[in-house]
Write a structure and sequence with these properties.
The protein has 192 residues and is an alpha+beta fold. It contains 6 helices and 5 strands. Helix 1 crosses helix 2 (42-64).
């Protein structure tokens, strides 16, 4: 039974992600397509809306990689940076994406255990950066993901001395979170 559950979880997560993408794209484009394609079956309209959105994202990527595209995107960015609330959201989003996707940048540096959610309990976290205070003490920003969705979580600033370092790969840590603790590396007990 456990092996069946382990085999079903990745399939279920993939289906949920595809269903979300399908609902999102159909929800945006179907109202636009309905009047023009009234005699088409709903399924074909939904598939067309998904294809249009994916094509749009691809074309935007191609435009962004060329000089003319960079100028157009720069102009659009200049407009966004003049709108009061939008500029804050846009600027932060751009910085996060740059930090994660920059050349040679790894979003997560290492897996660690930190005391969370209160003293005496441990949670797996990922070091995202290191800070040195004026007194010379070293602190780390640690992202503690939630289970089973590791894209959400908590950001903590933790003294380096209060973390338990692991030799886990980022993949092993993420597997541990997504599997609800079922896939724990054998060496975990020695670290705690």
């Amino acid at each position: 039974m456990a092996s069946g559950l382990v085999a079903a979880v990745p399939v279920a997560v993939t289906i949920v992600a595809l269903r979300f993408l399908f609902s999102f794209t159909a929800g945006i484009l179907l109202p636009v397509l309905d009047p023009a394609l009234a005699d088409w079956p709903w399924v074909w309209k939904a598939v067309l809306s998904l294809a249009i959105l994916l094509s749009g994202v691809y074309i935007l990527g191609e435009i962004a990689t060329h000089v003319v595209g960079r100028r157009i995107l720069g102009l659009g960015e200049a407009v966004l940076l003049r709108v009061p609330f939008v500029k804050v959201v846009y600027r932060v989003s751009k910085q996060v994406v740059s930090a994660i996707q920059g050349p040679g940048v790894r979003a997560f540096q290492s897996g660690v255990f930190v005391e969370f959610p209160h003293p005496g309990m441990r949670a797996i976290g990922f070091v995202t950066s290191t800070l040195t205070r004026p007194d010379g003490s070293v602190w780390n920003t640690v992202f503690v993901p939630t289970t089973p969705n590791p894209t959400t979580g908590f950001l903590q600033v933790v003294p380096a001395a209060d973390m338990v370092r692991t030799d886990y790969t980022v993949e092993e840590g993420v597997k541990m979170v997504m599997s609800l603790g079922v896939l724990v590396p054998e060496r975990a007990g020695a670290l705690l």
